[in-house]
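for the recovery benchmark. tokens below, seq after
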């Protein structure tokens, strides 16, 4: 099994993106450079919640926010997620790539 090849394979899902927030700054001497994408997600009904919330998902560096310029939010966008983990085994989903369907309501 080729793990690198599998990790680089992109599978796109259609999601509703509510907005994007880039952040680049120094906090306590640490350089922070991130793009957060806010995606509609269903609540975990097993916990008693009903309906939908918004999940914050990382999409690399702040420059990635430029890929969303001109989009009228909320927007239906195709997103390729990747499952990652840290050395403690905590898993998270990040965005690896996006595809913006054409035509999409773009702001002039």
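predicted aa per position
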């Amino acid at each position: 099994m080729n793990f690198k090849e599998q990790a680089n394979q992109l599978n796109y899902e259609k999601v509703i993106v509510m907005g994007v927030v880039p952040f680049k700054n120094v906090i306590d001497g640490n350089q922070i450079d991130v793009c957060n994408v806010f995606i509609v997600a269903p609540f975990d009904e097993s916990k008693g919640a009903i309906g939908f919330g918004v999940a914050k998902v990382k999409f690399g560096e702040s420059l990635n926010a430029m890929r969303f310029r001109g989009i009228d939010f909320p927007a239906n966008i195709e997103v390729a997620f990747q499952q990652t983990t840290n050395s403690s085994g905590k898993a998270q989903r990040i965005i690896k790539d996006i595809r913006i369907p054409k035509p999409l309501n773009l702001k002039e």
